[in-house]
Design goal:
The structure is a single chain. This protein has about 500 residues and is of the alpha+beta class. The protein has two domains: about 140 residues, no CATH class; about 220 residues, MetI-like (MetI-like fold, Orthogonal Bundle). The protein is about 50% helix and about 10% strand. The chain has 18 helices and nine strands. Strands 1, 3, 4, 5 and 7 form a five-stranded antiparallel beta sheet that branches.
């Protein structure tokens, strides 16, 4: 039957009204399913809130676990750099240097020794009062401890060849006197007090101390918590009783600056390494920003013969590892860039900052980042500026560069981090003297100086100091870094 031959139902007929009424009636619901059906239509708001908080909790827990996984080694190194004995076993995550009670004790002992509290000393005529507490088991007699000021050097490195003066040559220790007893169920806690006086005529910056007791007496505490305990707890040792607050908490950091100096010039090597790294990183950031911005804009906007060939060459250079070009770059710097360095009076560019900077004025990755960012900007901005009479230089400096802050910020972080942490090329170019080392190359000498003696404290402290500038730079330019990376991956 055709569609035209089918009978039609009049609009006002009973059958039409019956079908319309049946369509308007609600559908029947199975017995007992009304409550479940209503909950499906309108869920409980409390259930929705709990589900939302559960999802947020799972996400934040995963993020916290990932952050601990990546930041955990840095935090462990930071805590270990504060310890007087970083190689202790089992390792502790709560060193005494983080206890406020020890901060107050270090401040007071530093002032008693003649310092200002921040940086202490052991001055002539000054006397230091010190207390120790031991637990004597029931039925045993309390034996006063033996106190000694040893001739102890600060550690490995330059501190190990110290010639004096030593506190042991000028210190006078009074006999320990019992000042109190506290009975306990497991024994008696006996407190002893003694004084250390500088009877000489010279001031010393360190006052080491060793206190020993017979077997059976258990150390409970002291005015200042000891640096280490030896001989199964019978001997408590302090590296410096009158250190003051800063040298006590940051002992290894202070050693990094005090114990590393040039034997020929007397210059502080660690400060020189930091200055060299900052100088090279700053100059390289500036040159990279200038040349990468200009080259990226030229490849993105200007039309000239060979533009695609230049871009493909740029991409190809990014695929070549720097180690492959190591020998050729080294020979070029050794010969003074084919003799051109003789123009400004240098036969070779090795062991010079000029040679290091000339070999890395700009990177291909920097040009690529800027090119991708400039291509994401609408061309109508430049066309409007040209209609107003602006030239290429004015358009680039007044219109494009102000809009390129996110990309420039990201490039600043990447370039500074790459230069600051670079190790291989500075190790090859800057070999002598030690005053010209970068911080990364200088830390290698720490491994030979402190690592052979298992004195890991200064090495960890130097590593933490080297990481601080990059962390601070990232926190300052974090917004630009994220925006720059996101923009360089798009193309308008």
């Amino acid at each position: 039957m055709k569609m035209a031959d089918m009978p039609t139902i009049p609009r006002g007929s009973a059958t039409g009204r019956r079908s319309k009424v049946s369509a308007d009636l609600p559908r029947p619901i199975r017995p007992g399913a009304g409550a479940a059906y209503a909950e499906t239509i309108q869920p409980d708001p409390r259930w929705i809130a709990r589900r939302r908080w559960a999802r947020a909790g799972i996400i934040y827990t995963l993020l916290l676990a990932c952050s601990l996984l990546f930041v955990g080694p840095l935090l462990f190194a930071l805590l270990s750099s504060l310890k007087d004995n970083p190689s202790e076993w089992p390792p502790r995550l709560d060193p005494p240097q983080l206890n406020p009670a020890n901060w107050a004790a270090a401040w007071q002992l530093g002032r008693q020794g003649g310092g200002n509290g921040w940086f202490g000393q052991f001055a002539p005529g000054r006397s230091v009062s010190f207390e120790v507490r031991y637990l004597v088991p029931p039925g045993a007699a309390a034996v006063p401890p033996q106190v000694q000021v040893p001739r102890r050097v600060p550690g490995a490195g330059a501190g190990a060849v110290r010639l004096g003066p030593f506190a042991a040559d000028v210190a006078e220790v009074s006999p320990p006197q019992e000042v109190s007893r506290q009975p306990l169920a497991r024994g008696t806690v006996v407190t002893y007090r003694f004084r250390i006086r500088n009877a000489g005529t010279v001031a010393v910056d360190r006052l080491p101390l060793d206190v020993s007791v017979p077997a059976g007496q258990v150390f409970q505490g002291a005015t200042l918590w000891p640096s280490r305990q030896e001989r199964q707890g019978r001997v408590q040792s302090w590296n410096n009783v009158t250190a003051g607050l800063i040298p006590y908490v940051f002992n290894n950091y202070v050693r990094v600056f005090r114990e590393n100096y040039s034997r020929s010039t007397g210059q502080n090597l660690f400060l020189a390494w930091i200055r060299n790294s900052f100088l090279l990183a700053t100059v390289r950031v500036l040159t990279t920003l200038v040349f990468a911005a200009m080259a990226g804009y030229a490849l993105a906007r200007l039309r000239f013969p060979g533009r695609n060939a230049v871009f493909f060459t740029l991409l190809f250079s990014m695929m070549i590892p720097s180690q492959v070009l190591f020998i050729s770059n080294y020979l070029v710097l050794r010969d003074g860039i084919w003799g051109l360095a003789q123009i400004w009076g240098q036969q070779t560019l090795l062991n010079s900052f000029t040679g290091y900077l000339l070999s890395s004025v700009v990177t291909a990755s920097g040009v690529f980042i800027m090119k991708q960012f400039f291509e994401s900007l609408p061309a109508s901005l430049e066309e409007a500026a040209r209609i107003d009479g602006a030239g290429y230089i004015q358009v680039f400096t007044r219109v494009i560069l102000p809009l390129a802050r996110p990309a420039l910020g990201a490039l600043t972080i990447l370039t500074f981090q790459g230069t600051w942490n670079e190790f291989f090329w500075p190790l090859v170019v800057l070999t002598a003297p030690q005053d010209r080392f970068t911080l990364t190359v200088g830390l290698l000498s720490f491994r030979r100086t402190y690592g052979v003696a298992f004195d890991w404290g200064p090495l960890l402290a130097g590593a933490i100091i080297s990481a601080l500038p990059v962390i601070i730079l990232y926190l300052v330019f974090q917004r630009y870094f994220v925006e720059g990376i996101s923009f360089t991956g798009t193309k308008g």
